[in-house]
Amino acid sequence: MKDIDEMDMVGYIRLRAWNAVSERRKNEPRPNTIDNVWPGLKP
Question: First CA to last CA across the chain, in angstroms?
Answer without folding.
Answer: 66
